[in-house]
Here is the input.
Amino acid sequence: MSLNLNVNVRVSVSAHFLRKTRAVELLRGRFDFNAPRLRLNGITTAKSTDAKNKVLYNVVFDELPDTTFVLYGTSLKHEGPIVRQETIVNHSNTATTVSNTNTQKEDGNLEDAEPSDEDEEEEGITVCDEVWDTREVYVDARLVSGNDYRSMKSKFNLQNKATASPAEYFLYFLPMDHIREVVVPNINTHAHSVNNRWIILTFLEYLTWVAILMNMTVVIS
Here is the structure.
């Protein structure tokens, strides 16, 4: 086999290997599983093989410490040994924290647990090179429908144009779906990666921030 991961080592998994698992449901609102280069980190807790003699690992992710996922070894990437924190009390009653790494030695030929060509075909996943990522592409439909602002046939479809408020006019020209489905989830993903105490930002909170920002920066002379 091309992989020899030990148990109790740090690994990461690309999000597209988790799209058919409970991770998507459990982490809904915290991570956008369509975001490029999204990886979840965790620890291997057990090793086994399936009926086809393929290597399986039990993995516990940092974000879901109470849930164990069984994943093929070819979907895992080795990230290093576990770093444990130990507290030692010396004679002066001063607590000292010492970092210890896992003493297990890895195979010198250890390869990143990226999927092999054979496993890619079985899982039905497109194999990409290092430059291209497999992900969804978002396109503003107004630019490809023939009814965009550059077209002579473009239409202004705001309902109740005569009675609409300035806020309704402003929101009409914002890409609301893009903000709701892409911008806000990616803000939460990045913020939570640097601060695990981050409180999830909602769509309405984001729009409130936009309103406050406009009131603070727009000067009426």
